[in-house]
């Protein structure tokens, strides 16, 4: 152990850790759960520190040697080299002060080491005076929330959504000529093609992706430079613009200065908006996955209209059983995202005056949702959708047995007579054709001409 000091006095800190006194106090004071800050957020916050070192040097506030050491240390954090030096759980100060100081201390002590100094002395690099220069937790933490959300969306969810949409579109094209029975209210309805059914799934993914992408406009605004309450105290004029330019250069994403920093600190509406879009995607995926598992139910005593890949044994007692596990995985992920959104929505409403103090729980849930959805989309596409094949025999059987083909007769004999045919067929266990002929409403030739499933899947000429 080594002895360090903060405003409250001396603290013993593990000798092999770069963090310091304030982080150690937080380790002892917040022994709550096991939910630590995600790697994506650690990286984002280190990007802010790197940018600040550059900008403060350009503004003449930080000498070149310190700036270089801080940037080098920040780069190491960005690369994931010191992840074990970030031990704090998200259950802490609602502004994230303890995490911000954890970052400041790790970067400061590593910079001290790089400059040949003694770790823990705060010299020649001070965690507050140098690493946190021109900053407050209150503006850097929400800035990092936005950076982490944007980069994780682009790096972890964007491509899996594109890939899943394309996979569903490919199935829609492959199945475009397979006529099957439709279902409404879980009951037989008029025909459509299996391709049409899958085209709906593909569009749901596309639409949800578009909604998520639309949130980037607001997420790209950063409240950096607002410092404690949004006024910019302890910053130089132009610092905020220089920061977004540096952050944009580092990340490759075009960020902008928040149009109103007071809102940026006191509320997190862009993240609530994003969470809502993620929930919409989760709802779409739940519907798609649930439909697919029902369409594959059986294999002999269910709908069994499609066949899923057999990825693993499905039972510890029933030999040969295979289950729709990828669908079940997606549905569980969706349930988690629904819950995360409820947390984010509530937390986002809890800004009091100049600060929202639910920041850590907001970003934890946002990042978890993005990562889970990205992973789920990738797995579902590769291990379920790509391998779906149609069960043509079962599909044909269901079409031929459906009573709702009678809908084709509406324009010829009227709704009431068509309903009478359907009910007679159902009650007497007869085919539609048999019931129609026995009732004398049409001939066999007329039935064969008018009741043709292939003509019931699009508007008539």
Shape, per Cα inertia axes: elongated
Kindly give the count of domains. 3
The string of secondary-structure elements, in order, is EEHHHHHHEEHHEHEHHEHEEHEHHHHH
* Model regions low in confidence, pLDDT < 50 over at least 5 residues: none
The CATH topology of the largest domain turns out to be: Fumarase C, Chain A, domain 2
N- to C-terminal separation?
A: 84 Å
Q: For the record, what CATH class of the largest domain applies?
A: Mainly Alpha
* Whole-angstrom Rg: 30 Å
Describe the strand arrangement of the main beta sheet, using strand numbers: 1-2
What does this structure look like?
- 58% of the residues lie in helices and 8% in strands.
- With 461 residues, it is mainly α.
- It folds into 3 domains: 2-133, Fumarase/aspartase (N-terminal domain) (Fumarase C, Chain B, domain 1, Orthogonal Bundle); 141-392, Fumarase C, Chain A, domain 2, CATH 1.20.200; 402-455, Orthogonal Bundle (Ribonucleotide Reductase Protein R1, domain 1), CATH 1.10.40.
- A two-stranded antiparallel ribbon has the order 1-2.
- Helix 2 (39-58) crosses helix 6 (137-174), helix 6 runs antiparallel to helix 7 (194-214) and helix 6 runs parallel beside helix 13 (359-383).
- The model has no long low-confidence stretch (mean pLDDT 97).
């Amino acid at each position: 152990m080594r002895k360090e000091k903060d405003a409250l006095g001396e603290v013993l800190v593990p000798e092999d850790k770069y963090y310091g006194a304030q982080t150690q106090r937080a380790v002892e004071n917040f022994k709550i759960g096991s939910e630590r800050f995600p790697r994506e957020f650690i990286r984002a916050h280190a990007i802010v520190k790197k940018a600040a070192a550059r900008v403060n040097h350009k503004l003449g506030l930080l000498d070149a040697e310190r700036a270089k050491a801080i940037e080098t240390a920040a780069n190491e954090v960005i690369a994931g080299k010191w992840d074990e030096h970030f031990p704090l759980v998200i259950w802490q100060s609602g502004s994230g002060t303890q995490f911000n100081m954890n970052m400041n201390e790790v970067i400061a002590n590593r910079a001290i080491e790089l400059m040949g100094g003694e770790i823990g002395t705060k010299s020649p690099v001070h965690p507050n005076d140098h690493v946190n220069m021109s900053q407050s937790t209150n503006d850097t933490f929400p800035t990092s929330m936005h950076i982490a959300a944007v980069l994780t969306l682009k790096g972890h969810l964007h491509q899996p959504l594109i890939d899943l949409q394309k996979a569903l579109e490919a199935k829609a094209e492959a199945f475009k000529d397979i006529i099957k029975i439709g279902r409404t209210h879980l009951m037989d309805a008029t025909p459509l093609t299996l391709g049409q059914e899958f085209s709906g799934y593909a569009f749901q993914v596309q639409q949800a992706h578009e909604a998520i992408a639309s949130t980037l406009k607001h997420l790209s605004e950063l409240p950096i430079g607002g410092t404690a309450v949004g006024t910019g105290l302890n910053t130089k004029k132009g610092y905020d613009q220089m920061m977004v330019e540096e952050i944009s250069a580092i990340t490759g994403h075009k960020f902008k200065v928040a149009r109103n920093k007071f809102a940026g600190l006191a509320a997190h509406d862009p993240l609530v908006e994003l969470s809502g879009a993620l929930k919409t995607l989760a709802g779409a995926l739940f519907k798609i996955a649930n439909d697919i598992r029902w369409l594959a139910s059986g294999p002999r005593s269910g709908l069994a209209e499609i066949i899923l890949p057999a990825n693993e044994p499905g039972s510890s007692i029933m030999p040969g059983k295979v289950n729709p596990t990828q669908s079940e995985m997606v549905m569980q992920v969706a349930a988690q995202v629904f819950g995360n959104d409820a947390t984010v929505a509530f937390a986002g409403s809890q800004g009091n005056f100049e600060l929202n103090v639910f920041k850590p729980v907001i970003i934890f849930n946002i990042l978890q949702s993005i990562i889970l959805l990205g992973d789920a989309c990738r797995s579902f596409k590769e291990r379920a959708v790509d391998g779906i094949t149609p069960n043509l025999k079962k599909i044909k059987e269901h079409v031929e047995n459906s009573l709702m083909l009678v809908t084709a007769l509406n324009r010829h004999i009227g709704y009431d007579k068509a309903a009478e045919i359907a009910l007679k067929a159902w009650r007497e266990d007869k085919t539609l054709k048999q019931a129609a002929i026995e009732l004398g409403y049409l001939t066999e030739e007329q039935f064969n001409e008018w009741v043709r499933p292939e003509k019931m899947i699009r508007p008539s000429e």
